[in-house]
Amino acid sequence: MGGKKVSHTPNSMAIILLPYETQPRTVNIITYQPALRPALPNVYGPLEYREQRAIYERIDHILTISGIEQEFIKFALVDHASDLAAARAKDLERFANFSVVALRANIARKLTGLAHREFCVRLADSPLLQWFLQVGRIDTIKAFSKSTSDRITRWLSEENLHRINERLIALLSTDAVDFAAQATPAATFGLAEPLACEDVFFDSTCLKANIHFPVDWVLLRDAARTLMKATVLIRKTGLKTRMPQEPLEFLSDMNTLCMKMSAKRRAADGRRQRKQVLREMKALEKRIAGHARAHLEVLRTRRDETDLTEGRVRVIIARIEGVLGQLPAAIKQAHERIIGERQVRNEDKILSLYDDSIDVIVRGKAGAEVEFGNKLWLGETRDGIIVDYKLYQDNPGDTGLVRSAVQRLVVEQNLGIKHAWGDRGLASKANKELLEEFGIRDGLCPRDIAELFKRLDQESGFREGLKRRAGTEGRIGILKNVFMERPLLAKSFAYRELAVGWSVLTHNLWAVARMAEAEQQRQADMVQQARPPKKRIA
């Protein structure tokens, strides 16, 4: 570690921006000066630190030589609608440098698995993270706060972040030689050969939302809590209307009814008593909604009398209106299921008052019969690199996802897919015909047991392929448990899409860095074995 050389960032970089729609008459070139980073200190730490440091150094090397940073800045300029003709050179340079910090900060936060607050504290105290993010200067260290860390997670749109992932896969899988480096991009990353994309292993999972189990009457408690806490914020500014008791006392009454509802389940005539308790909750909920609506009207008409900022007022108003708009449907849902004893269709259910993009996903697994979140589709190569991913806002069937996945991989990314593997949930006659149309071997596990045994006995490599496909479950576990928060804290579908994109990008960079380290160790072992043995002195 102590004698290892660290490659420094080039003195300057130029980014050529080309519009996507038409061929431009002129080319815009942005030249920015990366920060001059001091070399990493020589730290003789434990093995875990040395491995972590090697990962960061490898990823830094990949980002520097691959052009991904330049692509990221280009897409960020498009997303932020920056006017290149009107912007000053200094402003563009500042934007480019901040975009590089945003790219590296999102990757580092996924690698560490820390929340925004803890990550910013670690950044201010870690020379390794400061070096990787390029915020550790010779004269000063410019770390950012948790609000900036949260903001840069949305620095790039999900569509362009997906393009960054595709760019990395294209570099890894191409066998074209870069004349400047006299090697393939994979070789410059430290890999022995380009990424093999002949085999792709598909699977889907549920990306769980950060919600409690959606019990109907608990939703009424959530509504009461949000409305009364927002009412407290309004009353603290001096804007008040007549109330028979304090807002938090209404919340205490609702909690009492919730405890009573839970206790009635064990009563002899619990069903009748639970109906009576729900009627009391409905009456209390309507009173709470009336007081919240009155305070909302006062805030709208007399907000100039308060010291609240315009943004804070908008947040309070949106919070109250969001709950009041869903309250009638939540009350009806609880009435239908508890008093009317009628089923409510999954697509008509309110699962959360704070996130309307959550689905009921029936998995049928031990300990997870039903999950609440969004369906996540993944496709990985034999080397464990995720080449395809998609988060769905609705809950489509797994068999219908194969066609769009093949379209993305073969048509859009132009990858040489020869074998497609998947579990029994993906097998269908339509998918078999689809794979034959694209000239891809059908490795989807048949639903018919007799056909499965026949293919296991007669088809060469089929048994081995299905065994390898089982390892995709482990890849899903690594992505969800290592590179995502548990549970994922993003509350809207758009933010969850971004979180998935950043997790996949970080995972692939991490996997490539580990493969490069393994290749370097393999070459070192070969050199060691080729050396003649030392002669022993008698």
Q: Could you say which overall geometry the principal axes of the C-alpha atoms support? A: globular
Mean pLDDT value: 88
* Spatial separation of the terminal alpha carbons: 35 Å
How many strands, what sense, and barrel or not for the largest sheet? 6 strands, mixed
Uncertain parts: 1-11, 16-27
Helix content range:
40-55%
Question: Which architecture of the largest domain would the CATH scheme give at its second level?
Answer: 2-Layer Sandwich
From the alpha carbons, calculate the radius of gyration and give it in angstroms. Answer: 28 Å
Total domains: 3
Give a short synopsis of this structure.
The chain has helices at 47-66, 68-79, 89-112, 116-125, 127-133, 146-152, 158-173, 185-189, 216-236, 247-264, 270-302, 310-339, 401-412, 429-437, 449-458, 462-482, 493-530; strands at residues 13-17, 28-32, 199-208, 359-365, 368-381, 386-392, 419-422, 441-444. It has 538 residues and is an alpha/beta fold.
